[in-house]
From TrEMBL, chain A:
The lineage of its organism: Bacteria, Bacillati, Actinomycetota, Actinomycetes, Kitasatosporales. Pfam families: BPD_transp_2. It is found in: Cell membrane. This is Xylose transport system permease protein XylH. InterPro entries: ABC_transp_permease. It is a multi-pass membrane protein.
From TrEMBL, chain B:
PROSITE patterns: ABC_TRANSPORTER_1, ABC_TRANSPORTER_2. Residues 6-243, 262-508 form the ABC transporter domain. Pfam families: ABC_tran. Keywords: ATP-binding, Cell membrane, Membrane, Nucleotide-binding, Repeat, Sugar transport, Translocase, Transport. It comes from Streptomyces antimicrobicus. One of its GO terms (molecular function) is ATP binding. This is Sugar ABC transporter ATP-binding protein. NCBIfam families: GguA.
């Protein structure tokens, strides 16, 4: 690579000798710098603690945690895809209808035509990809605003669902299919009071998480970044350990890890890695952040947008399968307002309305904030009327807070 | 001189860090057309913003008298009430409203909040006749060409009972035919007693309609010249416009110039919307290995459009022309194709076209060549950070770390990030478009060194710049462009600010009048 030696006319002033900053100052700065990243995680933690207190401990009971995951799995899956679409600078209003359509298709295939369920799942994901490609084509290559194209898609797929099901629910699914939503990892090994595979999985997750943290800290130092002071770093590791151990024990003391959680885990790690480290992921951020600049840097922006919608289609299909499996039926009314929940999750989780900003972890965090609010408020006995009011205010507050902070920071 | 209608006395205006105007004087006689000349950034627009109240009273020093009375404009509305109307280069019309609605926008004929269509349409029809616009008052603005839109703007000004009309490069976006009509209209309005300030780069235009010329340079009034019956002395205007101090040190270069590496032949580009306009018209130029070749030109000369069109047809509609690299014709129809052939274009507009301001330094630097820090589609973030860090040091980008968002950097440092991005791409041909616009003196000097270094390593550099001293200080050869055409080519030895400015102000319509 071409390196250029420059002899600047002006030498920068020598840095003042600094005292090592206090732990509090470092923590405050780290929080400020990554407000989008950590702010919502902290908020999620607070909400959990609050409802744990209000519900007299019901919220964090193993049964309820398992329910929470299974109830919100499909929204979280949608939120991941939606986050990527929003990062690319677009929006998708059709995902609820598409999820319903795919669920209906799966029901028709397995229940009416008796196709083996794995074949139906593969076909359903393919349908999702095709639907995404259809919308992506209009948006990316013909330049029609995604709001319009996916609004049309919302009607198209909803209508398609009703045509496919002829207004009736189609049920029940084969057992294997139902497990997508209600299944757990199998019991293996000696009988303990806990679910063995879950314990092993938790241990593995913990090991990987700690390894990553240690590597990250070492690298930060090599980039000339100020690493967290050792004390804080150890505290962070302890917090991670405590969280993973507690969560693992919670799940392991009930039926173990739900299949949905496994799917979500794979999606989180996979998409998180793709968005951070793949050229395609990078190009997605660049296109959403400044499309003109990305294009002038040689990014094939149309292709990037097209693929974001194909991916959204596949994830909408997956969410549709999970939802159908949970309901154990394909119904014409499935997936109504899912798109709004997914969009809200993405924005609560730190997406920017102008694109270019957001993380997969943020999408999950935002989705969980909504999920815990739903679940907690139901447990406390808040009616769905007030629940909606509160969720609306939370969305407004989260994004408003974000905008306020951005303005204060200057651009 | 006739009774002055406008007197601006010792106007000074400071922006944070920059003195845009200092002690500028401008006097316009009643019923005259007064031209305002100066290089890009000489302070013409700022002066007009002071006059029209965009920069309100109190934000500048000095005195404005209009029709003998002192003026303290708070905003555009208050200056328009006195009859001072400015028409900007980017027209302020609403495309989907009719001509009549636009003419009276914000100034409606209304009774208790309800528009009187009868009065609106009669008055509009009269104004449309007055400006010589051959259209119905019901026509939508979007259906008119730029030339006619310009006339609507003037009709709008007349509706406000304009006494002093300010036109900011009114013919820059017009073809010859429309330009001629517009200039005729200015003369017609003058006969009706409307005074006019005309900002223009085109000396033949000034010679045709103006009674006097004021030349600005670096925020100061250089001189005011009367235009006699035999026309203005163009030499004087040119000398007034240039003569900027050679304030910067330029790196010493002993260029080792090789064979012709990069050639553009007969390149022609049409305006993306108005396809009758040739924005770039049959341009041919070449650059040798190790050579820095400049492209001089004023606003609207078509330099950026040429560069962007060559770089993956990123501007307008290409209608002809070839690009050769080492004598072989290459395709540059898309940006990836152009990059693939080793061409890099460093944009003049770093915020809109150069950077993702939401993203950090490292990711901006690697964006155009992510493949170089990736294996099989996966970015090695460690390698990426290492690369970015080496650029941060070698380019002296002042930022806490390579993970700082580029939106937080100063202009000079942002420019260094954009430059790093393209140096990292290791281009054979580097097209720099106004690489030092709006950045401080220190950063400028650093960028000059980097550019000189690249050429010394055998890169081929095409440098587009509006700063003549910069071109003279860095380039081995300079082309001048005006109205989409190359109007001349000068070697380093031949080129002076005056000789370049003469070529830059040469009008395509009447080349014989100049030189």
């Amino acid at each position: 690579m071409a390196q250029t030696e420059t002899t600047p006319d002006t030498t920068p002033p020598a840095p003042e000798p600094r005292r090592p900053p206090s732990a509090g100052a470092v923590l405050a700065r780290a929080l400020r710098g990554n407000l989008r990243q950590y702010g919502m995680l902290v908020a999620l933690g607070l909400i959990v603690v609050l409802f744990q207190f209000w519900t007299d401990g019901i919220l964090l009971q193993p049964l309820n945690i398992t329910n929470l995951i299974q109830q919100n799995g499909y929204i979280l899956i949608l939120a991941i895809g939606m986050m990527i679409v929003i990062i690319a600078g677009h929006i998708d209003l059709s995902v609820g209808s598409l999820a319903a359509f795919v669920g209906a298709a799966a029901a028709v295939m397995t229940v009416e035509h008796h196709l083996p369920w794995p074949v139906a799942v593969a076909a359903a994901l393919l349908i999702g990809a095709l639907a995404g490609a259809w919308q992506g084509f209009w948006i990316a290559f013909l330049g029609i605003p995604s709001f319009i194209v996916t609004l049309a898609g919302m009607l198209l797929f909803r209508g398609g669902t009703q045509i496919l099901l002829q207004g009736q629910s189609v049920a029940p699914f084969p057992k294997g299919f139902q497990n997508i939503s209600s299944g757990f990892l199998p019991e293996v090994g000696p009988s303990t009071d806990y679910h063995n595979l879950t314990l092993l999985l938790g241990l593995a997750v913990l090991a990987v998480a700690i390894l990553q943290e240690v590597r990250g800290r070492r690298r930060a130092a090599s980039y000339g970044l100020e690493p967290l002071p050792a004390g804080l770093f150890l505290a962070k590791l302890a917090a991670i350990t405590a969280a993973v151990v507690a969560f693992t024990l919670l799940l392991a003391s009930y039926h173990g890890v739900p299949i949905v959680l496994l799917v979500l885990g794979v999606l989180l790690v996979g998409f998180g890695y793709v968005m951070r480290n793949s050229i395609l992921g990078r190009h997605t951020y660049a296109v959403g952040g400044n499309e003109a600049a990305a294009r002038l840097s040689g990014v094939k922006s149309k292709r990037v947008v097209f693929l974001a919608f194909v991916n959204m289609g596949v994830l909408a299909a997956l969410a549709g399968l999970v939802f159908a499996a949970r309901l154990n039926a394909g119904t014409p009314q499935a997936g109504i307002n899912f798109e709004l929940e997914a969009i809200a999750a993405a924005f609560i989780g730190g997406a920017s309305a102008s694109g270019g900003v957001g993380t997969v972890l943020g999408a999950l965090t935002g989705g969980l904030v909504l999920g815990v609010l739903n679940n907690g408020m139901s447990l406390v006995g808040v009616g769905t009327d007030y629940q909606q009011v509160i969720k609306g205010l939370v969305l407004l507050a989260a994004v408003g807070f974000d905008v306020y902070n951005k303005r204060k920071a200057g651009t | 001189m006739a009774r002055p209608v406008l007197e601006m006395r010792s106007i000074s205006k400071t922006f944070p860090g920059v003195k845009a105007l200092s002690e500028v004087n401008l006097t316009v006689a009643a019923g005259e057309v007064h031209a305002l000349c100066g290089e890009n950034g000489a302070g013409k627009s700022t002066l007009m913003k002071v006059l029209s109240g965009v920069h309100p009273y109190g934000s500048y020093d000095g005195e404005i008298r209009f029709e003998g009375e002192p003026c303290r404009f708070r905003d555009i509305r208050s200056s328009e009430q006195r009859g001072i109307v400015i028409i900007h280069q980017e027209l302020a019309l609403v495309p989907y409203l009719s001509v009549a609605e636009n003419i009276f926008l914000g100034n409606e004929h209304a009774t208790r909040g309800f528009i009187s269509w009868r009065r609106t349409l009669t008055h509009a029809a009269a104004l449309i006749r007055q400006v010589g616009l051959d259209e119905s008052p019901h026509t939508r603005i979007a259906d008119l060409g730029v030339g006619k839109q310009q006339l609507v703007e003037i009709a709008k000004a007349l509706a406000k009972k304009v006494k002093l009309l300010i036109l900011d490069e009114p013919t820059a976006a017009l073809n010859d035919e429309d330009s001629r009509k517009l200039l005729d209209l200015i003369l017609a309005l003058k006969a009706q007693g409307v005074s006019c300030i005309l900002i223009s780069h085109k000396l033949n235009e000034i010679a045709r309609v103006a009674d006097a010329v004021t030349v600005l340079r670096d925020g100061r009034t250089v001189e005011t010249l009367a235009v006699g019956s035999e026309g203005v002395c163009e030499e004087l205007i040119i000398r007034g416009m240039v003569g900027r101090d050679l304030e910067h040190r330029y790196p010493e270069r002993t260029p080792e110039i090789g064979e012709v590496a990069f050639e553009i032949e007969d390149w022609t580009v049409l305006h993306p919307i108005d396809q009758r306009r040739k924005v770039v018209d049959g341009v041919s130029l070449n650059v040798r290995r190790g050579e820095i070749v400049g492209v001089a030109g004023l606003m609207g000369a078509g330099r950026t459009e040429l560069a962007m069109s060559v770089f993956g047809r990123s501007y307008g509609r290409w209608t002809g022309g070839r690009v050769r690299l080492h004598g072989r014709e290459i395709r540059t129809r898309t940006v990836p194709e152009a990059i693939g052939h080793g061409i890099a274009y460093v944009t003049e507009d770093r915020k809109q076209l150069g950077l993702d301001l939401d993203d950090d330094i490292s990711r901006n630097i690697t964006l155009s060549s992510l493949g170089k820090v990736a294996r099989r589609g996966w970015v090695d973030r460690h390698e990426e950070a290492r690369v970015a860090e080496s650029f941060r040091q070698s380019m002296n980008i002042k930022a806490p770390s390579v993970f700082t968002r580029t939106g937080k950097l100063s202009g000079g440092n942002q420019q260094k990030v954009v430059l790093s991005k393209w140096i990292f791409a290791e281009p054979e041909v580097l097209i720099l478009d106004e690489p030092t616009r709006g950045i401080d003196v220190g950063a400028k000097a650093e960028i000059y060194t980097v550019v000189a270094d690249l050429a010394a390593r055998g890169a081929t550099v095409l440098l587009i710049s509006s700063e003549l001293p910069e071109l003279l200080g860095l380039c081995d050869r300079i082309y001048a462009m005006a109205e989409g055409r190359i109007t001349g080519e000068l070697s380093r030895a031949e080129a002076t600010q005056e000789s370049l400015m003469r070529l830059m102000t040469m009008s395509a319509a009447s080349p014989d009048k100049q030189v």
